[in-house]
Amino acid sequence: MTDTISQVFDLPRQLDDRVRVSRPVRAVFHVASREEVNRWLLGKSGEAMTDQDLVLKYVVEVRDLSHDDEPCLSVEDLASDERAAAMLAAIFLRNIEG
Q1: What gap in Å lies between CA 59 and CA 61, rounded to an integer?
Q2: pLDDT tens-digit series, residues 11-68
Q3: Beta partners for 13?
Q4: Is 35 exposed, middle or buried (0-12, 13-18, 19+ CB in 10 A)?
Q5: 3-state SS string over 2-68?
Q6: Are 33 and 40 in contact (CB under 8 A)?
Q7: Order of strands, sheet of 20-30, starting from the edge strand that comes earlier in the sequence
Q8: According to a count of CB atoms within 10 Å of the terminal CB, is the N or C end of the chain lower?
Q9: What is the pLDDT of residues 32-41, one digit of tens each?
């Protein structure tokens, strides 16, 4: 059994104050059970975690497929972009194990 899963999809990103683009990416996520993720999302303090927190915990890498060399994108930068983080979180949550 592998400890990561890979998904290909279009990811919206904010490039600057006025420019938003959507590029094909391959995101690699740590594998986790739904129960594990639910426990983590609620947190020990009872304070819910955010999409950004989820991205920083479960995203291994994101590669930009619109370039021949498929450069790695900064997970920290993607987590700071609310829309990109929401998309990454949604893709991850859709694919977690039952």
Answers
A1: 6
A2: 999 888 898 899 999 999 999 999 999 888 887 777 778 999 999 999 999 999 999 9
A3: 21
A4: exposed
A5: CCEEEEEEEEEEECCCCCEEEEEEEEEEECCEHHHHHHHHHCCCCCCCCHHHHHHHHEEEEEECCCC
A6: no
A7: 4-14, 20-30, 59-64, 72-73
A8: N
A9: 999 999 888 8
The tokens describing 62, both together, are 């994101």
Report the run of H or E that residue 79 belongs to, with start and end: helix 75-80
Q: Residue 48 phi/psi, 5° resolution?
A: -70, 145
Helix (H, G, I), strand (E, B) or coil at 78: helix
- For 35, the token pair is 């129960």
